[in-house]
Amino acid sequence: MNIENTQAQMRKGILEYCILLIIAQQDAYVQDIINKLKASKMLVVEGTIYPLLTRLKNTGLLAYRWEESTQGPPRKYYNITENGRKVLQELEASWNELTEAISSLKSHTNL
Amino acid sequence: MKKTYNINLSNQVFCIDEDACQQLQAYIETLEKHYLNEEDGKEIMADIESRIAELITEFLQKNHKEVVSQEDIDRVIGIMGTPDAIIEEDSEAASDQPGTRKLYRDINNSIFGGVAAGIAAYFSISPAWIRLAFVIFCFFYGVTLLVYLVLWIILPKAVTAKQKLEMKGENINVSNIEKNIRNTYNEVKKNTEFQKFIQQVKNFFTLVFDAIGKIFKKIFTIFASLFSVIGILGGTFLFLLISWLLFFPTHIPWFSDYCTLYYIISPSTFTILKIILLLTINIPLLIIIYASAHYLFRLNWSRAFLLIAVGCWFLAGISGIFIAVQQSLNFSGTQTSTQNHLLVPRDTSTHKYTLAIQELPYSDRFSGLYRNSDFLNIIALDSVPPKQIYLSAPIYIEQGYTPYPELNIRKSSSGLQAFHNYGNLNNIDYEWQQQGDTLRLNNYFQLKTPIWRAQKVKLILTLPENDTLVIRGNLKNIHHRFVKRVPAAKLNQSCTVVMKNGSPELLPEKR
Description:
The complex is a heterodimer. By secondary structure, chain A is of the alpha+beta class. Chain A has one domain: Arc Repressor Mutant, subunit A. Chain A has helices at residues 3-25, 30-39, 49-58, 82-110; strands spanning 28-29, 62-67, 75-80. In chain A, strand 2 (62-67) and strand 3 form a beta hairpin. The longest helix of chain A is centred in the last third of the chain and has 29 residues, at 82-110. Chain A is globular and about 55 Å long. The relative contact order of chain A is 0.14. By secondary structure, chain B is an alpha+beta fold. Chain B folds into four domains: 4-90, no CATH class; 98-171, no CATH class; 226-329; 333-506, no CATH class. In chain B, strands 12-13-5-16-17-18 form a six-stranded mixed β-sheet, with no helix packed on it. Chain B has a five-stranded antiparallel β-sheet with strand order 6-7-8-14-11. The longest helix of chain B has 55 residues, at 193-247. Residues 92-97 and 363-367 of chain B have low confidence and may be disordered. The interface between A and B is medium-sized, with 18 and 27 residues.
């Protein structure tokens, strides 16, 4: 079993959830999102995030606006849509289920 | 000293080293190859490029540099992730696509234009073999010389790292691109004096052939544009002309013979045939017009249009063949009948008879007749489509061996071979009369129902030797040599012939 591959799969599975979480808190510029994800070690390479954001935008979970920047060209600021919030709630529910399942499994094995 | 390039990344200008530029180009091209197939791939690439620009700006500011180096690009790729990493993280089934091979000119290993080296790279063999083959075959009428020049002109140079990898059929991933760039760099370093000389010769030829290639491309473009203009204008003109000819044929005098098709086949079949003809001729024209417009105005090819057009064309063709076979069956067989009438006159001593030829009276009863050409032996009909069809009945005068003249009426008609269908013969309505020693013959016959099946009526009048025949009516209806000796002005007058030595002879007029 390839442990690295499994870890990558796990990360990949919840990356979208993490992005929605970050943007739901506050409208964000791509670099903010990347920094937060990197800080929580959710992101290994930056390149992955761009296709992901575009896809989330295409499915109507995210929207963006252009904002002028003091250092350089205008930046894309992402914000969450109504639809995005609904999906986020659903994801949150399944996340809670997952963590409960894991913690109950852990408590059983500890016994 | 290093060469640098100016590049535009997300609308910002950067000064970049040659090697770094190649690496960055390969990196972006690899990602593009993957993402441009996707919806919004352009947006993804724009985002990535803008981030690369941002990172590079940051590095330049931090290190107080002006030129982007290979190190910077390495760091950018480190942060953004290699194409392998990005694509694998991003997609479920990220697998290495097998490298596609393409034929390029390998300018790094070339003697002249790099054609042999390119072919060698394509087949993964040593260029020496290909060069040897070129030289050997050059002795046979110098074929390869021409082939080489043509390939030099048409094959593109492998310039970018991506093209170089495609030439060797290797996978385009970053490690391969890096390896490739390193190899090129090492090869450039070990250039000797001799190679430099070859390089100069090469540069000269490259210049010449690139120029020839450009000229050919220009000429091709000019011709292609010219043909497109001709295609659009000529195609549209022919399209309209053919549609007009098919549906309003009587407007054009020389095309009205085409109306004769009405009598051969039924009017409804004729209409179907018109539509079939319209489709079979006009669909290729339409495709020519479309292709020309596509070339001239850069219109998008519509696959649906082409499929429908080609489909309709084939359908029309098949129906056309079906109708043609069906209709030609109506002419597959021939039926004939012959009737003999011995003309015994009241006065048998004179040996003098009269032949009165009655022509189709255009003027009175049939004033509305439509005069037709001789193409189908039809002389007249009353309307289009016709209710009445009149065909000409030629009259022949021959020597007879009976004591009296004899009239021989030969009727023939085409029809289905499979059945002895004499309906088409019965359709012939021919009238003639004998009054004493006068024979009245119509120079025409009528079809009872207007269905043309190549019906023919041939009248043979046999005249015994030394008998006299007075002919009244237009001599043009008589098929015999002596008619040629009658002056054109007198063709409409009566004349007298005597059967002499088996041939009718013209008697001089009595004053």
